[in-house]
Amino acid sequence: MRFMIVVKATRDSEAGVMPDEKALSEMAKYHEELQRAGVLLDASGLQATSKGWRIMYSGQKRTVVDGPFTEAKELIAGYTIIQVKSKEEAMEWARRFPNPALNGQEGEIEVRQLFELDDFGPSEAVERFRKMDVG
Predict the structure, then answer these.
(1) What is the phi-psi region of residue 103: left when phi exceeds 0, alpha when psi lies from -120 to 50, beta otherwise?
(2) Residues 34/114, Cβ–Cβ less than 8 Å
């Protein structure tokens, strides 16, 4: 089972404030533990939305909207993807995630299970994804 630990953005992360050495050290320690346990698949921080864009769809029409985006609490600042045996194991790891907000401020993470190709049932499209080794 794969899970994504989503780090919610804060005003600081959207302003481009970089974590200090203590925060980086705590994150490095946590991710080293994930790696030693063999459950870490990927992890990265995301740059502020001022450096990004969204694609808005209306039928076949696409509109590009440049960042920044206003609702920081709805934005993502980073992620970690783990592969574990159960939801309970994912919960144990998530509870150990260091506070992602700077200087002990209020922070938030969200944990979401990723779909596996087997969740979709047999289909030609699923087989195409299998051949790409995606999911």
Answers:
(1) left
(2) no
CB atoms within 10 A of CB 109: 19
CA 20, CA 11: separation in Å to the nearest integer? 16
9, 105 in Cβ contact below 8 A? no
- The whole-chain average pLDDT of the chain stands at 94
> Would you place residue 71 in the very low, low, confident or very high pLDDT band (cuts 50, 70, 90)?
confident
pLDDT of 72 higher than 70: no
User: E-strand spans in 30-118?
Assistant: 40-45, 53-58, 61-66, 76-83, 109-113
Strands 109-113 and 40-45: unpaired
Note the pLDDT tens digit of each residue in 24-66.
Answer: 999 999 999 999 999 999 999 999 999 999 999 999 999 999 9
Listed in sequence order, the DSSP H helices in the chain are 11-14, 21-36, 87-95, 124-132
Q: What pTM value is reported for the model?
A: 0.91
The pair of structure tokens assigned to 17 is 């404030």
Helix (H) / strand (E) element for 5: namely strand 2-8
